[in-house]
UniProtKB/TrEMBL annotation:
Belongs to the TRAFAC class OBG-HflX-like GTPase superfamily. HflX GTPase family. It comes from the Bacteria. Pfam families: GTP-bdg_M, GTP-bdg_N, MMR_HSR1. This is GTPase HflX. Residues 1-13 have a biased composition (Polar residues). Residues 227-239 have a biased composition (Gly residues). Residues 283-448 form the Hflx-type G domain. PROSITE patterns: G_HFLX (PS51705). Monomer. Associates with the 50S ribosomal subunit. Residues 16-26 have a biased composition (Basic and acidic residues). Keywords: Cytoplasm, GTP-binding, Magnesium, Metal-binding, Nucleotide-binding. GTPase that associates with the 50S ribosomal subunit and may have a role during protein synthesis or ribosome biogenesis.
Length: 509
């Protein structure tokens, strides 16, 4: 048996593990790994369990599951309250079994975030996925047994599947099969709240779906408003002919172009917001990082805001802008962004490009990393890969922040500070290191670099308060005929000082 269980299934552990996961999907996962959990699980994945499964399977009416009848003709499916079995294939030439396990655990966290109940996780080592059934026909039959004995109704594959592979796997296992991209798209669909976010996710779903159509059961109209999150119940007739599929493709293409137009129109509103930030001369810090790293928590700490913090993946889907104040009283903007994940579906990178452009316009990128994760550097790499796809992001200064220090032991701290000596180590939970982080951020912000000396009329109060907010007042004297001022400001304010000053011959150095 080369199929190997990753320990998500043992009945004895399920209760407790699930309980822990309920409050902390990723937390529990990293804990498990840190505690050397892999070994602990090894024993439970042995023959005994397999036989137990086989035994239980004897009582099951596999063909009675009847799930295939229900599999909708749409190749895009929701993963809500499903009972799922996870499957991963890895080649030892490309990854270690530890990495493969980590990836499957992340898939489990994703599945739970989507609302599914994870019953089992199976890893298989093979040179490359089987072109027909992904796992190979023998393994597919084994998988069918596992699915039946666990009474699962869905298989989630830790990869992108060809439409034909998915179909073949469904035919053998009699349950619906969802791939990694569909799962992530589904989570995004559940979490998007803004109009633009929703439209972007919908676009990504449609683009994912287009090449995977095998005909629709009913008409598109039952997908309320063209919503791509397909209903899992197959309503209407099955097996529409090629003509029907062609028509549906056209409908989807039409929806795609309509969505693209809509999104393009929403662009200007975002431009305005961003523009006004620029107009006020607010330096901008983009907070990026792997999902669940603690970006929102760190942003909250720095700004005192109450950004949504969730122990779920992708709690933040709409970039939020917060205002923060430096120690010397200047304001800057912190942009809390959507989290990244390994192998972020390309459809999503595309869809969120406009949102991620916020990052490209920032003066500084703060990259938050979960320091308590068993493989923080793998996460850094995944984030850097996405950043590399955003034009202009490469030229922006970056500050790496290892968060969750409260859960890092001495060895972990040592390791990260050796590999990333410049990085800050903080805990958004306890507040450790937050002051140092704030100082670092402030020192890396662009500084107002034009010194002006001027006498301003007392009527220039508004300008003066802007100078206080966005620049730095060096000297100020209240004379009978006006305010004598020396200040460091940016170009924009310098121009205003000149135009409003009393004698008009201010010096600039
Ligand atoms: N122990 C510990 N937990 C933390 C810390 N910072 C954040 N968390 C927890 O980590 C989880 C994720 O935090 P968020 O701030 O939502 O993370 P995020 O990066 O914004 O996540 P997404 O928006 O989903 O990508 C939450 O359960 C937080 O309570 C920390 O310093 N220590
Ligand atoms: Mg967040």
């Amino acid at each position: 048996m080369t199929q190997k269980s990753t320990g998500m299934q043992s009945d004895s552990q399920l209760g407790e593990a699930e309980h822990r996961r309920e409050e902390a999907p990723l937390d529990s996962r990293s804990q498990v790994l840190l505690e050397g959990g892999a070994d602990e699980f090894e024993s439970s994945s042995g023959d005994e369990l397999w036989q137990e499964r086989e035994r239980r399977n004897l009582f099951k009416h596999v063909e009675g599951l009847g799930e295939l009848e229900d599999v909708s003709e749409v190749e895009y499916r929701k993963v809500r309250l499903e009972r799922v079995v996870l499957v991963g294939v890895y080649s030892s030439a490309q990854t270690t079994s530890d990495e493969a396990e980590e990836s499957l655990r992340e898939l489990a966290a994703l599945a739970q975030t989507a609302g599914a109940q994870v019953l089992d996780g199976l890893l298989q080592q093979r040179d490359k996925p089987d072109p027909a059934t992904y796992v190979g026909s023998g393994k597919a039959r084994e998988l069918a047994n596992v699915v039946a004995s666990q009474e699962a109704d869905t298989i989630i594959v830790d990869d992108d599947l060809q439409p034909s592979q998915r179909r073949a796997l469904e035919d053998v296992t009699k349950v619906k099969v969802v791939d990694r991209t569909a799962l992530i798209l589904d989570i995004f669909a559940q979490h998007a709240t803004s109009r633009e976010g929703k439209a972007q996710v919908q676009l990504a779903q449609l683009e994912y779906m287009l090449p995977r159509l095998r005909g629709w059961g009913g008409s598109l109209s039952r997908q309320a408003g063209g919503q791509a999150a397909g209903q899992s119940g197959g309503i209407g007739s099955r097996g529409p002919g090629e003509t029907k599929i062609e028509t549906d493709r056209r409908v989807i293409r039409h929806q795609i172009s309509r969505l693209k137009r809509q999104i393009a129109q929403m662009g200007p509103a975002r431009e305005v917001k961003r523009g006004s930030r620029k107009r006020y001369g607010l330096p901008t810090v983009a907070v990026v990082g792997y999902t669940n790293a603690g970006k929102s928590s760190v942003t909250n700490r720095l700004t005192g805001s109450q950004e949504l913090v969730g122990n779920a993946l992708f709690a933040t889907l709409d970039t939020a802008v917060r205002r923060a104040k430096t120690a010397d009283g200047r304001y800057y903007a912190l942009v809390d962004t959507v989290g990244f994940v390994r192998r972020l579906p390309t459809q999503l990178v595309e869809a969120f490009k406009s949102t991620l452009e916020e990052v490209a316009e920032a003066d500084l990128i703060v990259h938050v990393v979960d320091g308590s994760h068993p493989d923080p550097f793998g996460q850094i790499e995944a984030v850097d890969k996405v950043l590399a796809q955003i034009d202009g992001a490469a030229d922006i200064g970056r500050l790496i922040v290892f968060n969750k220090a409260d859960r890092m032991d001495q060895a972990a701290r040592l390791r990260v500070s050796q590999l990333e000596p410049e990085a800050c180590i903080v805990s958004a939970r306890t507040g450790e290191g937050i002051d140092e982080l704030r100082e670092q951020v402030e020192s890396l912000l662009p500084h107002p670099d034009v010194r002006v000396k001027a006498k301003l009329p007392y009527s220039a109060g508004a300008l003066l308060s802007q100078i206080r907010e966005f620049g730095q007042v060096r000297q100020i004297g209240y004379e009978a005929d006006g305010i004598e001022l020396v200040a460091d400001v940016d170009n924009r304010l310098a121009a205003q000082v000149i135009s409003q000053s009393i004698d008009g011959h201010d010096k600039q150095e």
